[in-house]
Amino acid sequence: MEFTELRYAVTGRVASITFDRPDRLNAWTPTLEAELREAIRRAQADDDVRCAVLTGAGRGFCAGMDMAVLAAGRPPVPQAPSDDDLAQRYGYLGGFDKPLIAAINGAASGVGLCLTLHADLRYVAAGAKLSFPYARRGLVAEHGTAWLLPRLIGPMHTADLLLTGRTVMAEEADGMGLACLLPAEGFLDAVLARAADIANTASPRATRVIKQQLRTARYQTLGQATRGADREMAACRDTEDFREGVQHFLDKRAPRFTGR
Questions:
Q1: What Pfam families does its record include (predicted)?
Q2: Range of the domain at 222
Q3: Residue 67 confidence (pLDDT)
Q4: Taking the C-alpha atoms of 74, 76, 80 and 84 in order, what is their torsion angle to the nearest 10 degrees?
Q5: pLDDT of residue 72
């Protein structure tokens, strides 16, 4: 697939995925949706990629569904094939087994902000405006937002954002725990530096398993999560990455993890 509405690049083990409709604040379209899925597939398949950053070109991250779609009068109603988390419309983002970072460089609304809930880390530039405006459009919380959001920011903040549909500034979003605030100046470079740190200093095997732990822990008791962690910890001891993790520390050098 040739990308027309996003840009994809890999530098220093980090895949940068940039929504590229700046004249429309990167508003969501069927084409952009298909291209994001392909970009994530490429990053997943590329062994040289160990972390991915999702951001937007220009002043916005993603202003939500392109109003031309909503103006047609019938919002899309996707049907997921099952209740499985990863089978949902944007479940593939959660299924990406490498660290995924959302760099919210500007305005993010509706589906644009919903996408970031699937990321492992969210950073937001000072001054950015965020909203879930469903109630103000006669719509309801889409794509599992009412399930994902309370697990990130708690039920009261979730009810506030979803029932009012109000816009919050990046600074308030940081206070809620929705995203970590960073200065607007040099924002993307700062996020990419954090991504590069993960990509070049953390074991890809370890980050993959930790992501699985975080996903399954949503449905586990503490005892179940602990027993699973014990099994995974035992499995680590026979891996190349564990041996390298110890050796590079003793040698006081940069790690050379293989992911095995």
A1: ECH_1 (PF00378)
A2: 203-251
A3: 75
A4: -120
A5: 62
Residues 225, 136: one domain? no
Residue 212's pLDDT is 92
pTM of the full structure: 0.91
Residue 256 in any domain: the answer is no
- Alpha carbon 25 to its chain centroid, in Å, reads 19
Torsion, Cα of 87, 93, 99, 105 (10° steps) = -160
Strands (E), the chain: 6-11, 14-19, 51-56, 60-62, 100-104, 107-109, 121-125, 129-131, 167-169, 180-182
pLDDT for 110 equals: 93
Do residues 139 and 104 both lie within one domain?
Answer: yes
Q: b/e per residue, 36-70, with b = 16+ CB within 10 A?
A: beebbebbbeeeebbbbbbbbbbebbbbbbbeebb
Is the residue at 259 inside a domain? no
Distance CA 259, CA 240 (A): 8
Residue 141, classed as helix, strand or coil, is coil
For residues 55 and 93, the answer to whether their CB atoms sit within 8 Å is no
d(CA 39, CA 73): 30
pLDDT at 82: 67
**What average pLDDT values come out for the chain (260 residues) when binned by 10 residues?**
94 97 94 95 96 97 82 56 70 92 97 95 98 92 92 96 97 97 97 97 95 91 93 92 91 91
Question: Are 159 and 183 in a shared domain?
Answer: yes
Mark whether 190 and 226 lie in a shared domain.
Answer: no
Distances (CA, A) of 171 to 79, 93, 121, 159, 222: 35, 26, 16, 19, 33
Structural domains in the chain (count): 2
